[in-house]
C-alpha cells in the first residue's frame, strides 16, 4: 500500500491539538518530533540513556507527521487541516508557523518512519519508558519499565506535561487506590499507576481512536491487564468515588472537568492536572481553588505546569 505523509510545522504548545486534528482528518497514525522531548534527554539527575548527538531532531518547535492511506485524497483535506490548525489561536494556542508539506511513502517507509526518534527514556526516579520493539533491561532493581508503541497520535510519555503527571503520581500513590485517568491518550499514566501499585484504574478518552491506542499499550504491559478503558466525554455520566483523578489535557478542558472531578473524588483524595501552559496557569489554579480544593503541589517544566490538589475531609 502507498501512503501520504503530511507534516505540520508548529509550536510545542500546540502538539497535542494538531495531532488530534490530523487524526480526525483520517490519519492512521502520527510521528511527533518535539524539540522539548530532546531537551529532556540531556543528562539530568536520572542519568542519560542515549546520546542526543546520535539521533536527528528538531531544535525548536515541533514537526508532526501524519500518515494517510491511499484511500484518502490528501490534497482535498489539506486546506481544512491548515484552517483548523490556524483556528487554534482562538483557543489560546499558538500554532505558528503552521507550515504544511506532503510526500508519498511506501508501506515499509511508513512503518519505520518514526522508529529512529523513539528510544528508552528515564522519566522519573523509578520509571523508564521503552519502545515496544526494544530489548531493554532495567538498570536498577526498583526501576519500573513501561512499554509503549508510539505508532498512534497520543504521545510517547516523554512530553513535559506527561513527565510532570508521572512525577506527581509518584508523590501521592501509596498502593491499592482507585484511580481515574481522564484523557488517557497513550494510556501511559494508567500503566504507570498500575506499576506503582494502584488497585483499580478507569481510563477515559473522547473517541474510539484514542481508546484503541491506549488498549494497544495496555496490552503490552501485563501489570495493566485489568485497566478499564472506554470512550467518554471527560467524566460526563460517570458516578463513582475515586482516590485519585489525573488529567493531562489542555487547560481549557480542565476547567469544565473540575466540578466533575470533585463529584467523583473521595474526601481526602487527590486531583492531578497537567497540560497547563504558562498563560493559562492562573485561570486553572483559580478554578481548582474556587471548587474547594487545597493546592498541595505545583510543579513546572519549561512553559508547562502541573497541579496536585487535595479534596479536604470534614475533619480538615
TrEMBL record:
CDD domains per UniProt: AdoMet_MTases
Keyword Repressor set for record: no
Cellular component aspect of the GO annotation: cytoplasm; ribosome
GO biological process: methylation
Major subcellular location class: cytoplasm
InterPro entries, A to Z: Ribosomal_L11_MeTrfase_PrmA (IPR050078), Ribosomal_PrmA_MeTrfase (IPR004498), SAM-dependent_MTases_sf (IPR029063)
Enzyme Commission number(s): 2.1.1.-
Catalytic activity reported: L-lysyl-[protein] + 3 S-adenosyl-L-methionine = N(6),N(6),N(6)-trimethyl-L-lysyl-[protein] + 3 S-adenosyl-L-homocysteine + 3 H(+)
This protein's UniProt keywords: Cytoplasm, Methyltransferase, Ribonucleoprotein, Ribosomal protein, S-adenosyl-L-methionine, Transferase
Record-listed S-adenosyl-L-methionine binding positions: 162, 183, 205, 248
Coiled-coil zones: none
Function according to Swiss-Prot or TrEMBL: Methylates ribosomal protein L11.
Protein's name in the database: Ribosomal protein L11 methyltransferase
Annotated source species: Lactiplantibacillus mudanjiangensis
